[in-house]
Give the backbone structure.
Amino acid sequence: MSDNLITDSTRLSTRLWLRLLTSTHIIESEIRSQLRENFDTTLPRFDVMAQLYRYSDGLRMGKISELLMVTGGNITGIIEQLVNENLVERLTDPHDRRAYIVKLTDKGKQEFERMADVHRAWVDSLLDGLSADEQSELYNLLKKLRQSLEEKRHNND
């Protein structure tokens, strides 16, 4: 059955949801594979480093967990590995001596920048089946969908 023949709105919304999931899975799988093959690293490690790069003054462990929407236990193991490789450092939080701030070391910044440049090229390549205008249109539609979903979640809280 052609996608153009779908008229039942419930059926179309279900197919759209599945198409989004499949596309996300394919992209994520390729990125995971490329990170492993080219940098001997994992997507979660890359994501942690990306957040620390974004917040150059560092972040508390809980904030990293919150930003990545994962448990603190997951983050603790990743941070420990990155500390052992001298890619991040743990510093005592000056406002709360019981807590730590985690930040990239100079070596970590350089390593992340190297990975991020290549990562951007992979994503560009994966999405090059869409023109720049189509990518922009899809981005705007997904932004609208996200806003709608956040409003629904907020109204249900």
Observations:
- The longest strand covers residues 96-104.
